[in-house]
Amino acid sequence: AEVTVYYIDRRAPGRNEAMLARAEAAGVRFVKGKVGSVHGRGRALVLRVEDVDAGRIVDAEADLVVLATGMVPGGNGALPLPVSRDPDGFALDDRASRVFVAGVARRPEDVASSVRDGTGAAAKAIAAARSR
């Protein structure tokens, strides 16, 4: 299979950087650019893409297209208790109320980081409960 990833930003903290390097070594093409549209042409899909490095708009044909969006806080804000939020809308700890948030409720993260963050939030909650 020929694989091309079109991206605006590549955010791959930690060991994901090594994964990107392995993907490139295996032949995955990474193209900095925005996909403006996808439409069908017979059995193929055609992407209209801004190739930033080449400085041009191109039509790229594909058999399969996977679209991913950036991570944003979800929901309508209705939580079972009041939670402070940062300017981007992600939840913040509230030590006075003994509310500790973790994982993607706090910020966009990968699974491993979310697990570590959850362990830290649990430790903070235990410490807060003991100090009561």
Describe the structure.
- A hairpin with a 2-residue loop joins strand 3 (about 35-40) and strand 4.
- The chain is elongated.
- It is α+β, with helices and mostly antiparallel strands and about 130 residues long.
- The N and C termini lie far apart (about 60 Å).
- It is built from two helices and five strands; from the N terminus they run βαββββα.
Summed up:
With 132 residues, the chain is α+β, with helices and mostly antiparallel strands. It contains 2 helices and 5 strands, in the order βαββββα. Helix content is 23%, strand content 23%.
Question: Which residue ranges are poorly predicted, with pLDDT under 50 across at least 5 consecutive positions?
Answer: none
Shape, principal axes of CA atoms: elongated
| SS element count, helices | 2
- Chain-averaged pLDDT: 85
Widest beta sheet: strand line-up: 3-4-5
Taking the sheet with the most strands, its summary is: 3 strands, antiparallel
Number of DSSP strand runs? 5
Beta content comes to 15-25%
Helical fraction equals: 10-25%
Provide the gyration radius in Å. Answer: 21 Å
Assign the structural class, choosing from mainly alpha, mainly beta, alpha/beta, alpha+beta, or little secondary structure: alpha+beta
The SSE string, one letter per element, is: EHEEEEH
State the end-to-end CA separation.
Answer: 59 Å
